[in-house]
Write a structure and sequence with these properties.
28% strand; 2 domains; five-stranded mixed beta sheet
């Protein structure tokens, strides 16, 4: 007698489990059929109901502004000294956005100039020499106002690109870029591409 009761309990538990699994699979709209399987003819035992905690929807992520919107040029380089950011534009699409380090704005004669320029060269493995005689080896040198100002990598820089430390520890007027970003820039940009540098 005891084994019949255990078998009956096991069978009822199996039907209940099947009903729960079928419900989890989701029903197809308008068919009343869960997960595409035929509806069960044996009613499932009533399950204890408990209110599940309400799930709070995730806050929407802010959308970064498109700094290339409205551009009609095949290529355009935009630099913001205030934001310490740079954008490469193909028409109105941003193809690269990167943090930069510009000239040390609190040091006399080391600020990066603002205005509209054009790419004047694309050079590899260059040595940049200051008027003091100090030299810097760079893998990429892309001048926009030669011979004084251009874009280049800066392996010696010991603070993050985009940091406000640029005001006192920035470049001598050039735009420093992370190595991976300037490598992309070197292969992407054409001679004569417009460069717009804003304060």
């Amino acid at each position: 007698m005891m084994s019949r009761v255990r078998r009956a309990s096991a069978a009822a538990a199996g039907v209940a489990a099947a009903a729960v699994l079928t419900a989890c699979a989701g029903s197809q709209a308008g068919t009343g059929v869960a997960g595409g399987a035929p509806a069960a003819t044996t009613p499932a035992p009533a399950a204890a109901t408990s209110a599940a905690p309400a799930v709070k929807p995730a806050a929407p992520r802010p959308v970064a502004p498109n700094h290339c919107v409205g551009n009609t040029r095949d290529q355009l380089v935009k630099v913001s000294l205030r934001d310490q950011r740079m954008w490469l534009c193909h028409l109105s699409t941003t193809v690269l956005a990167t943090a930069i380090t510009s000239g040390a704005s609190s040091v006399p004669y080391d600020s990066t100039p603002t205005g509209t320029y054009h790419i004047q060269g694309r050079n590899r493995d260059s040595v940049l020499t200051l008027n003091t005689g100090k030299q810097y080896n760079v893998k990429y040198w892309i001048p926009f106002s030669a011979p004084l100002y251009g874009f280049h990598d800066s392996s010696w820089q010991d603070f993050p690109y985009g940091s406000p430390l640029y005001k006192t520890q920035g470049s001598h007027g050039c735009v420093h870029m992370p190595l991976q970003a300037i490598a992309y820039f070197y292969h992407w940009v054409h001679m004569g591409t417009r460069v717009v540098i804003s304060a």
